[in-house]
Amino acid sequence: MKETKPKAGNWCEFESFCWFERPDDADKFCIYHLNHRDSDLLEQSNADAIRKALEQFGDDVRLETFSHWAVGWIDAVAVRVSGPDSKETEAYRTLCEIIDRLAEYPVLDETDYSEREHEATLKNIKDSFYQVNEEVDSEKLPEDWTCSALSWFWDNDQSAVENTDDRGGYPNRDQLLACISKICPKAIK
């Protein structure tokens, strides 16, 4: 579904919304939501790509953070839609181009998104260790064991590191035990 482009003053139609410290010409700005506290990896990646694409436009772009009762906070970008000559600003045209790109393909920066998936999966492998705490001596694991584990999973059990919920792969107990028994058998108690 193609997203409609935000209009100047769109923020006036948001329910239960308050914009503190808005510019004097706030009616010429639109607000486009980027991400929030619970955003998945893709939303985080796209939000950063949008920020980078718009940072060159100076006063026509404002990065904003709003409080929200359900998700804690929302990061957004406020973009001046038209300038003093009533013509669309370059910043607004760029935002609209980005929205059109997202309608065609959901990833703005493949490299950034892939790196986020990789880092999240490494963190999840480390965080999943609690599942095998009783069976594995963590002192006997090498410092870079999570990298070795990711590599082993990639070669032997990709389902353990499949990014099914856009928060990175997360191995279960049996997968983790199988992996550790292969990459560092001396750590098994």
Q: Can you walk through the features of this model?
A:
The protein has two domains: 10-108, 2-Layer Sandwich (Alpha-Beta Plaits), CATH 3.30.70; 114-187, no CATH class. It starts with 28 loop residues before the first strand and ends in a 6-residue tail after the last helix. With 189 residues, it is α+β, with helices and mostly antiparallel strands. The longest helix has 18 residues, at 110-127. It has a three-stranded antiparallel β-sheet with strand order 1-3-2. The chain has helices spanning 41-54, 90-104, 110-127, 145-156, 173-183, and strands at residues 29-36, 61-68, 72-80.
Poorly predicted runs of 5 or more residues: none
Question: How many alpha or pi helices?
Answer: 5
Strand order of the largest sheet: 1-3-2
Range of helix content: 25-40%
Class per helix and strand makeup:
alpha+beta
Coarse shape: elongated
Ordered list of secondary-structure elements with their pairings:
Layout: E1 29-36, H1 41-54, E2 61-68, E3 72-80, H2 90-104, H3 110-127, H4 145-156, H5 173-183
List the main descriptive attributes of the protein structure presented here.
Alpha-Beta Plaits; single chain; 189 residues; 37% helix; 5 helices; alpha+beta; 2 domains
Summarize the model shown:
With 189 residues, the chain is α+β, with helices and mostly antiparallel strands. The protein has helices spanning 41-54, 90-104, 110-127, 145-156, 173-183, and strands at residues 29-36, 61-68, 72-80. The protein has 5 helices and 3 strands.
